[in-house]
Structures are given as C-alpha cells and as structure tokens.
Hints:
With about 425 residues, the chain is mainly α.
Amino acid sequence: MTSRVPSSSPWPARWQEAWDASQPALDSIRGSLSSHDAPSPRPLRVNQMDSELLDQQLVHLLCEPLQRALGIANAALKTRFEPELTLLVQVVLYKFSVWNLGATYGAKLQGLSYSAPIDAKGQLAPSGLRQRTLIMHGALTILLPYCYNRLRTGALSRAWPDAPSSDKRRIAWKTLAHLETTHALAALLNTMVFLWNGRYRSLADRLLNLSLVSTRSKITREVSYEFMNRQMVWHAFTEFLLFLVPLISPRTLQRRFAKLLSRLTSAVLPSSSDYKVQQRKRGKYETLPADQCAICAENASYTLGLGYSNTLTTLAPYSSAQESISHPASVDEVPAFPIYTPYITSCGHLYCYYCISERMMRTADEGSETGWECLRCAEHVRSADRWEAEVSVARDSASGSDYEFSSEFGNTDLSGSVSSYLGSLTE
Length: 427
C-alpha cells in the first residue's frame, strides 16, 4: 500500500522518495503483527481475592436459613449435622457453577473463569474442562476440609491431646498438628507468590494447574463505591438511632398521645366529654388500701411485665372497691407495698417520699403544665407535704383498750412507715 505526497507541500519529490523507501519495512512489521494472536488481558489480583470472599459469603447465606430451620425442628440435629449441611450446599454450588460453567459464582461476578491446558485424552465436563481435574479440585477444596474438621472435632471430643505421649491417639494428634502447620506455611508461601505474579490463587489451583483468566476483552481499574456508600450511610443512621433512642421518654410520648386523643375525642364527641366531666374521676389504684403506696404497686406491675421471677399476688384483690370493703385487711397483716416516709399530696392521698418526689421531678423535667396524675383519684397533683398525725388513746373498762386514729395535722412525726405505725397501735 503506497500513497502519494500532496504536491502543494514543500519538497514533494524528497518526501515521496522517503515514503517509498520505508514501505518494505512497514510491510514486514504488519506481517509480524498479524501472525501473533492478541494478548489476553491479565486478571487483577484483587478481583481474584474478592471472588473467593464472595463464594464464602454465598455459602454462609445459603446455610444460615437451613441451619435455623433444622434448629427449630431439633436443636441436637443442628449441632450434629451442621458440617454435613455445609458440605451438601458446597457440593451443589460446585456442580452448578464450576462443573457446568467453569467458574464459581463469585468469579462470574468478577468476570473470571478457570482455564487449564487442553488435553484431548481426558473426558470433558460441560464447562469444557477435564472431568478428572474438576473432581480432584472439588475433593481438595470441599471434601478434604470437611474430613479434617470432622477428624479434629472427633479427636477433641475423645481427648486425644490429653492422652499419654506413647498412646497412638496422642501420636495421631501430633501428626495432625504437624500437617496443619505445614499446610498453613505452604498456603502462606503460595499467597506471597500469588501476590507477586497473580497466577494461582490457592494451593489446589497450583497443584492442578488451574488459573483464573478474565472473560472480558477490556479490564478497567475503576472501583464502584456504591455499596460502600450504602454501608456508610446505614452505619451512620444506626449510630444516630442508638444515640437518639435513649433520649426519648416513652411515658412522655404516651402522655402526649393520650392528651391529643382526648382533645380529638372532646372535639368530635362533646356530649361524651361533658358526661366524663360530670362523672367522678377514678384512678387506676383507687381500691388499694390506704396504708399502701400506689406508685410502688404500679412499679411492681411493670416489674412483673418485664418477666422478673418475684411474683406479687397481692395485686389481684384490688379489682373492685366492693371486694376491698367486704374483705377488709387484717391489722396484723403486713402490707405488700408499705409507705415509707409518708407524704400527702394536694388531692389528699399518701405516697412514699421517694416515689412521689421521683414522679413529680420527672413531670417537671418533662415540662408538663398540668402536673402529675394521682393513681387513686386521677386528679392532678401539684404539691406534696410531709404527713403528720395525732394519736388519741381512750381506755374503757368494759371494752379494754381502744385506739382512735386521726388524720389531723399535729406534732407527731412519722419517721417510719404507715403500716409499721398502725401495727404499733395494736401492741
């Protein structure tokens, strides 16, 4: 192939002579290039390592639901046959990936496939590789690790390491340990050589002369960070939730939701709201005896709901006021929830000092304008004072001794509990 130099350019004769003289050399170069095949692209080392990690994750994802289902059926079977279940999953994956396609699913995702020297004597698998080579490769990568894990587990269960030094079991255990160390060193050397030349990823691939090659004509080093970005966003979102959830008070949300619901109900059904105003308010623990703390009873009910072992059977009799009136508590009976350091609220009911102070401080921190709602009368508690009482004693010759209890304010200060104070009167 020759061409003429344009006549408009300077020195056209000299240029044409140089071009004609270079044609034989150019023709020889074109002939040498056409006789050689195009070089195949070399697979990246990181893609080969990533394909192995993808295969391991795939086996784990397929084994996890099967093991969970087997554990639900029988926990003993799950522990006993877990290695066999993993072996079954690996064999099935090997059949439908390497045997049929010539590459694992992880290698397919990375654009890689196995390549081996062509041997016309051997029988070929559907993937185009020798069946004998693939059988040996599957035995080395799947069956041999399973046998080793089973042998090691059985040896540990039978206490081979603790046997005497002259025992065959101890000798077999030492041999197994030496083989494990030798395999670890060989795998380390193979990894170093693989990082140097990028040919054989594992010992089984090197022994069987199986190498991963690229199935794409062009290889780019562009890395997609989409998955990494999603993981970082999800991690940041979970960290934000872990920081935000402890700051949210469920009782505050419940109170605000109840307040909003009551406002909506009063706006939609004014007649029912008027009826509720005219009706006397009743608290949750209205029928609880007067010498017991309603807040302690409520905390105990929450504790029972959380599944603690202590059982409080005294909550059941407080279902109705009629039962408490018909079956009055005995004087000698110890209250289930005694009131320690009693304080009287603005609505006239007694609570423990620590209980009522904790509730009122919590209500103040939450910024509630109406105040805390009493558990006995459902009125809003705005203040609480120390409860004091006077004791008047009247002795009658016919009836013996009679004690009269007064709730008027006096100089007698109760430092203990109300129940212990009432019990002291009967002595």
